[in-house]
Amino acid sequence: MDIDRLLRRSASAQPVIALAGLAAGAVFALLGWNAARDAVWAAVTTAVLAFTVISAARDAMRGKTGVDLIAILAMAGALALQEFLAGALLALMLTGGSALETYAARRARRELTALLERAPRIAHRLHDDTVVDIAVDAIATGDVLLVKQGEVTPTDGILVSGIAALDESAITGESRTVTIHTGDKLSSGSKNAGAPFEFRATTRADESTYAGIVRLVREAETSKGAFVRSADRYASRFLVLTLVVAGVAWLVSGQAVRALSVLVVATPCPLLLAAPAAILAGVSYAARYGIILKGGGPLETLGLAKIVLLDKTGTITRGRPRVVAVETFGELDGDELVRLAAAVEQVATHPFAPSILAEARNRGLDTPFPTDAREEAGAGISGVIEGRRVAVGRAGFVAPGAARSARVRAIETRTAAEGSSSAFVSVDGELAGALLLEDPIRAEAPRALHALRKTGIARIVMVTGDHPDVAELVGDAVGVDKVLAERSPEEKVEAVRTTRGAGKTIMVGDGVNDAPALALADVGVAMGARGASAASEAADVVLTADRLEGLVWAVRIAQRTRYIALQSILAGMGMSLVAMVVAALGFLPPAAGAVLQEGIDLAVILNALRALGGGRIVPPRLPGQEELAAELHTVHTHLRPRVEELATLPARLDVLSPDEARNELERMRDFLENELLVHERDEQRTAYPMMARLFHGEDVTGPLVRTHQEIARLVRLFSRLVDQLPPQGPHPGDLRDLRRVLYGLHAILALHFSQEDELYSILDMPSAGSRQSGPSASGPSKPALRPA
């Protein structure tokens, strides 16, 4: 057995031996057996001294120095001066302190340990209609795997059929069940919270999202922070100070026992106990909210940062396009256009396909499977749907012979100005309409950047490769201090290098092109564990929850952890120094000093463990908050396409017959009166009071209530105009007021929904301890808001 293994095995036994020896000596003292008493206490001291000498020698061979020398000198001095009780108390104090430090480390890394322990080891592979259990390392790309209820997905993949309910709290910190559908991607590390499902593996287990998180966690466990390394240096200086004080006390008083008392109250040093416990507790606490820090170094640097640089796509924006408008050019209405486009997109591989399919799902549309599908990379895809050939893509691809009409030119101008994209749709060669897509700004982004400034961040810069016009629009919307547009990866690195001269810098990104800048920054932060692995590997911090608020929480946790660590160190050192002075003056005998120092160590460690929680880093949660957030998201997603029609209907009125126009206007009136206004009233009744409780009565929804009143006024005005239309439909003169109200409703509703989405994103934050109490498999309770 090697020495290291011997030391590890003896570590748990030493406190027991020391306590038993101290107690036995006390019994012998009561019986008057003084010789036996002294012999037992001397034996205990000698045994612990021997192990301490061996451990200190091993550390010295590895280049580590610390305050173990103080403990060695104190126990040796106690034996030499026949202060056997002090020696036994020192032995118990030293071994008990080590045990306490070990407990503190385990307690501090509990969130990290939980992530490691839940990694699956067995997978169920489907082969010839049978299920075969295999090791996760044997999973190959393309395997179809079965995940039973309560099991963890072993690798990343795509759902083969049906739907699946997933608890992703372990990797995102969000405890709400996520429902995915056939063809959707799923991440490893997600727990099946519903019925068994099958998925096709897209990566090997060692290349999966969860495997990457596990590697980050292992690195976090073994990394030592700069603050801890500084503590080691201070400990060496404290050792010198202790020896000087002990020597002076002995020299001035002529009593070696005073020097022994000084050594006793300086053993062990609170500095070495406080810093590692606090830093490790902070790293573990951050993991609870989906923030994986690669050790203590990034945590400490985050607490000192003053400048933040952010990429745009996938960081300030979601990085996932969504359909924001549907333009129709002929007889097809918006729903039919989306249905046909989504049907073809089921077999497409381009990035817009998932967004168009999601839009059809949000509208509750059935999508038949296409036949004779043909895709041209970079141009579009076509296929036969219900006997008609439908094409989706560039205008020149879907309708090669069609002239560029004013509507087409208007869409191209709009998308160029807004930085959005378009997918034109044709049916049997005739241009039928277009789907407009954009990468939306994260609802929480403006509030998150404002919260960053409140933590002490002095400057926020957006660095992006996008065109300046688009970048400036996004930058103005979220409130950054400066926009650096059209920056290549090399120029992003130069921006980080230039900014670092003004203070500690955080760089936030999510793609491969951000990796060099993330690596150069003082702290690189990767958004989302599902993003590019290069970004996650280059970054010092990974926000697995893929929410910008995670950066705010990371900075707050870092600042609080640094404060607690420094507080523990200064308090412990201060109390030890006072005790050393009292001991040097002869007012603190060795035995009493040992008991006092043990109390100091205990207080220091318990204070350091405060970094495990508290501090109101994340707002408190209310009963039903997550369910309400899910309902609000569902309802807004369902209403948004109809709200967008408020902007497209005025243009369509020109091409519709009077009778068709009247039908469309009446349909819109019914939607506004029977769905939109009903939703607004239910929302004001259920969501707004909860927001008031979250903000302790602050009137955060007052402006929204006034917006509701204006929406209701415009709806009444629109209904009155529709009611006054002649039976045969609107005359050209009727359309001016109708268009004015429709455009006004669209403008106010678009702003209103944006404001509500930002405010309601607070309801959707991950909750503390979500991994311990995940959501039920049954999903959210019955909605209080009525989906339209």
**In total, how many beta strands?**
22
**Helix count, DSSP H or I runs of 4 or more residues:** 27
For the biggest sheet, the summary is: 7 strands, mixed
Intertermini distance: 71 Å
Helix fraction, binned, reads 55-70%
Unreliable segments (pLDDT under 50, ≥5 consecutive)?
Answer: 768-788
Mean pLDDT over the full residue set: 80
Beta-strand proportion: 5-15%
Structural class: alpha+beta
Rg to the nearest angstrom? 34 Å
The domain count comes to 4
Strand order across the largest sheet: 10-22-21-20-11-18-19
Backbone shape: elongated
Main location: membrane
Biased composition (Low complexity): 773-788
Keywords: ATP-binding, Cell membrane, Membrane, Metal-binding, Nucleotide-binding, Translocase, Transmembrane, Transmembrane helix
Protein name: P-type Zn(2+) transporter
What does this structure look like?
- The chain is an alpha+beta fold and 788 residues long.
- The chain has 4 domains: 3-110 and 220-280 and 561-612, no CATH class; 120-212, Distorted Sandwich (Calcium-transporting ATPase, cytoplasmic transduction domain A), CATH 2.70.150; 322-438, Calcium-transporting ATPase, cytoplasmic domain N; 625-760.
- It is built from 27 helices and 22 strands.
- A 7-stranded mixed β-sheet has the order 10-22-21-20-11-18-19, with helices on both faces.
- Helix 8 packs antiparallel against helix 9 and helix 25 (658-694) packs antiparallel against helix 26.
- The longest helix has 37 residues, at 658-694.
- The chain is elongated and about 115 Å long.
- It starts with a helix and ends in a 28-residue tail after the last helix.
